[in-house]
Amino acid sequence: MFKKIGPGVLVAAAFVGPGTVTACTIAGVQFGYSLLWAMLLSVIATIVLQEMSARLGIITQRGLADVIKSEIQNPVVKNIVIAIILSAIVVGNAAYEAGNVGGATLGLEAIFGSEYVFMYPMIVGACAFMLLNIGNYKILERVLVTLVLIMSLSFLVTAIITKPDVIEIFKGLLIPKVPKDGILTIIALVGTTVVPYNLFLHASLVSEKWKSKDDLKAVKRDTYISITIGGLVSMSIIISAITITSEEVKNVMDLAKGLQPLYGAAAKYFMGIGLFAAGITSAITAPLAAAYVVNSCFGWNASLKQFKFKVIWMLILGLGVLFMSLNIKPIEVIRFAQIANGILLPVIAIFLLWVVNRAAVMGSHKNTKLQNVIGVIIILLAIVLGAKSILKVTGIL
Q1: Which three-class secondary structure state does DSSP give residue 85?
Q2: What was the pLDDT predicted at 356?
Q3: Residue 319: Cβ within 10 Å count
Q4: 49: nearest Cα among 213, 224, 217
Q5: What's 119's DSSP letter?
Q6: Among 65, 130, 184, 393, which residue has the least CB neighbours within 10 Å?
């Protein structure tokens, strides 16, 4: 099983983090089944973009930032794009890392209680540090596969416990509706699923696991299955939240408390285990992605075990634990990161679509016409949602 499963699981682990869990919880509580279509659309868009990124990684055996540097000839444009990438990924991941650590902390609090809550961020940080410090891709992959399986089972069981209405689920998936005040939640669902840093992470990790073009079929299968599982987890959280009528539900632990009177203490523990797994997988993949991006942008060609590679992920992880332990809210940094990500996703999606159509780069493995049509639609959506996200952050929307 482990030989067949690869980087796709790490991508799923990265996008199903505390931000996704919170956005899905709010979507379920406030809008019921009516935004399931937005999650389905997000998953399809993620599969299309991540397949392009993974295909680029295995054919070129290079990271996405490496290809960007080599293919953009104009030095001014090249430097602007690299500056946007570095600021969005490195600064953004440092800001969001506190949320990842915080999510895992909430999970521990649900399982073990709040008596030692001050220690939980450091425990989460220590677990992430030990796994990253090993510097062995195979071990890291196996741990994250296990955590994703635990997370998936936890949230799927929680959804099944609530006995959802199957007909309403299909209606929510297949009939798009935009409820009043629902546009910002739709942006949040798409924004936490179609994640720019995953495009860089996937291309880099593919070349860690597979070295031959003959493995392209395995790469595609891994991408489709892993991201579909991630999407099912997100949908399970939305479905679990629907049974709660309280307007006081703001995050996943409020959801766990709301489920407890109806379904007993088991719901709280399943939710806690799922949230811990979601938090710690994102707490590992966010620093790892930042390190790969810096590695590519500066042309280091450093391995997982080299010191300068480790320094980057240590910095990201350390800032996350520090922000969470001292209860610092890096609001301005997060606002900047959201704006940078709103710009980065359309820019990278356009570049990705361009480069996977270049025969000089991809040879016979370039995009088909259907992939290009779907890619263009996704880019247009990314531009619209990116613009709305920036307007929301700046307070104009």
Answers
A1: helix
A2: 93
A3: 21
A4: 224
A5: G
A6: 130
Hey, CA dihedral for 291, 296, 300, 303, is it positive or negative?
Answer: positive
Instruction: Give the position of tokens 């450091």.
Output: 122
Choice between 261 and 391, residue whose per-residue pLDDT is larger? 391
Phi/psi of residue 4, each to 5°? -85, -30
| Type of residue at 89 | I
* Planar angle of CA 341, 247, 329, nearest 5 degrees: 40
Assigned token pair, 247: 């307007």
Q: What is the CA radius of gyration of the chain?
A: 20
Structure tokens at 274: 């799922």
Token pair of 53 as six digits: 């990124």
* Nearest in space to 292 (alpha carbons), one of 62, 40, 70: 62
Task: Please list the alpha-helical segments (H only) found in 113-195.
Answer: 120-134, 137-161, 166-174, 183-193
pLDDT at position 109, please?
Answer: 85
Looking at the chain, the whole-number percentage of residues with pLDDT higher than 70 is: 90
b/e code 91-109 from CB counts within 10 Å (16+ = b): bbbbbbbbbbbbbbbbbbb
Q: Which residue has the tokens 């741990």?
A: 143
User: Taking Cα atoms as reference points, which of 274, 327, 281 lies closest to residue 107?
Assistant: 274
Q: What is the pLDDT of residues 2-11, one digit of tens each?
A: 566 778 888 8
Taking residue 31's Cβ as centre, other Cβ atoms within 10 Å add up to 23
| Residues 336-392: tens digit of each pLDDT | 666 777 777 888 899 899 999 988 888 889 999 999 999 999 999 888 887 877 787
